[in-house]
């Protein structure tokens, strides 16, 4: 069967591949500890579920406006004002089937073949694939552990060329957990000020899951707002990954372009999810705060456990629910059977020998690291790290 060449432009996400492998081993009856999860292990808060049940009973069952219900877009605007001090009008908001879909709309709306897109590493897998699908050219800026995986204004300046059209990043970052402070964002914004043709996608989906109570958006700077596309959604902060709701806030022209794309692909997202989303965005955030407090407790423990593993080098994640240790101390070692040459090998070794699933850093553009998720119970975290420690000790 000859399929479209476009399928060769990008790969299946490595994160999903590992999750699939883990599931296959589990189906064989093997007890796998899953530290590869990219979603909260909590249930959706009750008040949001109730809103969805009511929406079903109230017959919210018809096609929805392509951009999302107006009252939902108003709720998004109110949220952006409340949490981020950002002023938007509903015609600047497009609601989509997950933040992934919002990102796809945004990239496809602004990237022409040959346009350069700067992405700091490590980055969330899908960014690169979307740019490739749009036939743009990815220019990576290598993040370094010495700078807590945040790029400097100088690195940004050096990466910009006359062909640069877009800069794309997440803060809090999946996978590194890096969170840019206001000053750090201002440093980058000053560089963009000199390059008015460059747009920015600011992926803020982990905004609530941060451990320093610091959430800043690059869109807050007056000269950035008209060229920044803010991406957010309900998946992480409200434990609603399966509900599929993301949104973007953008200059009107870009929002219109995204609406046009979405109008031919998916139309408006699920009606019940949209009604529930209004409740999620407008109600007090108590359930979210309780979830984040539990992530914080696990994070503290994970940092202790990692400190006890020889050869792991890491920075404390300020946000999200991942640890991202650099594991290159194990490269070139073997347990007598399997030789470890890179993070892919180590991730596979941990899966097959320690029965712990992790994600190789190369999925995120960093070949030295592993992503270990703490979106799992404390019990499983203890068990997973004990197994990792034991398996690593066998590598000589
Ligand atoms: N951005 C980042 C950085 C993510 O980690 C994820 C989910 N793993 C998404 C966007 C997409 O979220 P969703 O499509 O579930 O809203």
Would you mind describing this structure in some detail?
With 396 residues, the chain is of the alpha/beta class. It has 2 domains: 146 residues, Aspartate Aminotransferase, domain 1 (Alpha-Beta Complex), CATH 3.90.1150.10; 238 residues, Type I PLP-dependent aspartate aminotransferase-like (Major domain) (Aspartate Aminotransferase, domain 2), CATH 3.40.640.10. Strands 2-8-7-6-5-3-4 form a 7-stranded mixed beta sheet, sandwiched between helices. It has a 3-stranded antiparallel beta sheet with strand order 9-14-13. A two-stranded parallel ribbon has the order 1-12. Strand 5, helix 7 and strand 6 form a beta-alpha-beta unit. The model has no long low-confidence stretch (mean pLDDT 96).
- Strands of the biggest beta sheet: in what spatial order? 2-8-7-6-5-3-4
Estimated helix fraction:
40-55%
Annotation, overall tally of beta strands: 14
Q: Which architecture of the largest domain per CATH?
A: 3-Layer(aba) Sandwich
Q: Structural class per helix/strand content?
A: alpha/beta
Query: Rg, please?
Result: 21 Å
For the terminal residues, how far apart are their CA atoms?
47 Å
- Into which percentage range does the β-strand content fall? 5-15%
Characterize the largest beta sheet: strand count, sense, and whether it forms a barrel: 7 strands, mixed
CATH topology of the largest domain: Aspartate Aminotransferase, domain 2
CATH class of the largest domain equals Alpha Beta
Indicate the low-confidence ranges by residue numbers.
none
């Amino acid at each position: 069967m000859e399929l479209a060449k476009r399928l060769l432009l990008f790969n299946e996400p490595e994160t999903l591949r590992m999750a699939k492998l883990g599931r296959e081993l589990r189906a064989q009856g093997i007890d796998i500890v899953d530290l590869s999860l990219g979603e909260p292990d909590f249930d959706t808060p009750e008040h949001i579920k109730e809103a969805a049940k009511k929406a079903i009973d109230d017959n919210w069952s018809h096609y929805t406006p392509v951009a999302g219900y107006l009252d939902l877009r108003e709720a998004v605007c109110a949220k952006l004002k409340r949490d981020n001090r950002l002023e938007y009008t509903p015609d600047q908001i497009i609601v989509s089937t997950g933040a992934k879909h919002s990102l796809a709309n945004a990239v496809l709306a602004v990237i022409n073949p040959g346009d350069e897109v700067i992405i700091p590493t490590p980055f969330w897998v899908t960014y690169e694939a979307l740019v490739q699908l749009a036939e743009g050219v990815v220019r990576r800026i290598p993040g370094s552990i010495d700078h807590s995986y945040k790029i400097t204004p100088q690195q940004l300046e050096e990466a910009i060329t006359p062909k640069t059209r877009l800069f794309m990043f997440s803060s809090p970052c999946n996978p590194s957990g890096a969170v840019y402070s206001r000053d750090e964002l201002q440093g980058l914004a000053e560089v963009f000020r000199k390059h008015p043709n460059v747009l920015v996608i600011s992926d803020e989906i982990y905004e609530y899951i941060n451990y320093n109570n610091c959430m800043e958006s690059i869109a807050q700077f007056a000269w950035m707002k008209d060229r920044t596309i803010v991406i957010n959604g309900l998946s992480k902060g409200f434990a609603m990954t399966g509900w599929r709701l993301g949104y973007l806030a953008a200059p009107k022209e870009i929002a219109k372009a995204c609406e046009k794309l979405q109008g031919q692909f998916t139309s408006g997202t699920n009606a019940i999810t949209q009604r529930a989303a209004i409740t999620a965005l407008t109600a007090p955030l108590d359930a979210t705060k309780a979830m984040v407090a539990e992530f914080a407790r696990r994070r503290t423990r994970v940092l202790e456990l990692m400190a006890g593993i020889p050869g792991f080098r890491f920075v404390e994640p300020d946000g999200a629910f991942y640890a991202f240790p650099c594991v290159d101390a194990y490269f070139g070692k073997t347990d007598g059977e399997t030789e470890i040459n890179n993070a892919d090998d180590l991730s596979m070794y941990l899966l097959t020998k320690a029965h712990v699933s992790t994600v190789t850093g190369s999925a995120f553009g960093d070949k030295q690291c592993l992503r270990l998720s703490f979106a799992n119970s404390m019990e499983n975290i203890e068990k997973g790290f004990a197994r990792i420690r034991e398996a690593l000790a066998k590598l000589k």
